[in-house]
Amino acid sequence: MIAASLRADPHADNAIARIVGSGLEAPLSQWDRLAIVNRQLAQWQTNGGLAGWKPDTDVPAPLAAALEDYVRSARQLPEWADGARIARAETLFMEMSMTSCTLLFCASLPECYVIPELAGVLHAAGQLEQHADYRIRSTAAMIFPVMMHGGLLGAGGGVAQALKVRLIHATIRHLMLHGDPATAARNGALVAPQPRQGEGLHHALFANGWDVSRDGLPCSQEELAYTLLTFGYVFLRGLRQLGIGLPPADEEAYLHTWNVLGHLIGIERALMPDTMAQAEAMFGAMQARGRRASYLPDPRPGLGAALMQTMQNEIPLAILKPFPVLLTRYLCGADATVTLALDARVSLFSRALFAVSMGAVRLIDGAVRLVLPQFSIARLLTRIVGYRFAAKVLMDQTRPLKLPEALLNQVGQVTTSWQDDPKAPGWMNALERRLTGRHKQQSSRGPIQC
Fold this sequence. Notes:
Layout: H1 10-21, H2 30-41, H3 47-50, H4 61-74, H5 83-112, H6 116-124, H7 132-147, H8 158-177, H9 181-187, E1 190-191, H10 201-208, E2 210-211, H11 212-215, H12 221-231, H13 233-241, H14 248-264, H15 276-292, H16 300-312, H17 323-339, H18 348-368, H19 377-394, H20 405-417, H21 426-436, H22 438-444
Antiparallel strand pairs: 1-2
C-alpha cells in the first residue's frame, strides 16, 4: 500500500483540479479562478447554509458545478458519528475553557511544528516565523466553531469551517506541486523553487518548490492525521500531565469528536485512533518517522521561537517570561525541546521557581482532593495563563478572528461564559478574577468580548 505520506485527498483534489483546469468560454488564469473560489468560500458560514447552497450567478458554470458537487458530498457526517459523545466533548470543551488555550499555546502548536515536512508547509504558507499569531488565530478560528455547542451536529459552523479547510489543503497541494498530487506521488516529483509571479499566499506556495521523493506530499494523509492528533490526543495528554486528566470515557468522547472532524477534512478512518493507547502509539510512530526526515533549511527552530516570543510578549514580569518555554518543555518532552531549539539556557531562578511551583501544585492538589474532589490549583493556574494569552492574542478586539459575524458573536458569548470555572468553588473564581484583573474590567466595562 502507498505510504500515508504519499496519499492525499482524492475528493478535494479532484474538486480543485476541476476548478483550476476546467474549460471556460473566456479563459481565466488559475489565480483568477482561485480568487473566485475564495469569494465563494466566504459564503460558507453555517452548517445549515450548506444545504442547497448555490454559487453566485456570475461564477462560470464549470467552477460552480465543481463547488456544488464538492459541498453536496463533503458536508455529510460519517455514519459512525455518535451524537452523545460529540455533545459530551462540547461540554468538556466548555469546562476546560481557558485551560484549553494554555495547552493550545504550550502543547498542541509546538508538537505541530515537530514534523519537518509539516513545518515546511507552514513556513511556505506565509512565513509564520514573522506571523506566529496568524497561525494561532487561524487555529482558533477552526477549533471554536467545531467545539462550540452545535458545531458539528447543529446550526453552528463547524462543518462549514471544515469544508473550507479541506479545500484550502487541496489548493496548497495543487499549487506547491504544480498539478495533480497523485501523479506527483507516482513520479516522485521534484518541483524547483521559482521566482514569484505576484503577491499573496497563492503565489508564495506556487514559487516555493517541493521534493516529493524526500518530503512526501504537502498536506498528506500522514500530516493531516498527525495535526489532528495534536489537537485531540496532545490536549488530553497535557491534561494528564497537569494532573487534571479526564476519565477514559470522556477522553474517548473527545477523540471521537476530533475524528468526526477528521472525516470532514478528508482524513482516512484508519488514521483516526479511538482510544488514548491507540493515539499514543500512532503519534509516537508518526513522530519517529518524521524525525528521520531532513528539511533544509530547517524551519522548526524559527517557528518555535516565534511562538514562544508571542507568549512572552504578553507576560509582564521578567522572572516569568521563561515560563512558556519551561511549560512547553514539560508538556512536550526532551525530543521536541531539542527539535524546536527550546533548550537554550534559562535562568536558574526561573527554572527553580517553575519546578517548585509545579511540584507544589501537584502535591497540594493531590492532598486536598481527598476531601474536595473538584479542587485544582492546576486548573486555576492554567486558566489564568490561558486567559492572559486568549485576551491578548485570540480576543483582541482590534483584530477579530476571521469568522463570519454570526460565528464571531457566538465565540464572544462562549468566551464570556468562561469567566468562571464551573468546577471551582466560589472563592477560587473570585481569586482568579482578582489575579487576572477581571474584577476591574467587569465593574467598569463588563466582561471581555471578542
